[in-house]
Amino acid sequence: MDSSRTRLERATPFLIVFLLVVGIGSFVLAGFSGGGGRDGQPQVNGGVNPIESMFPRDGDEVLQQVSVGLDLDAAWEADLVINGTLIPPNQLDGNASTGIYSFTPDSGKVIERLDPDQNCAVGLMHLIRDPTQTSTVRWCFTAS
Question: What is the CATH number of domain 38-143?
Answer without folding.
Answer: 2.60.40.1220
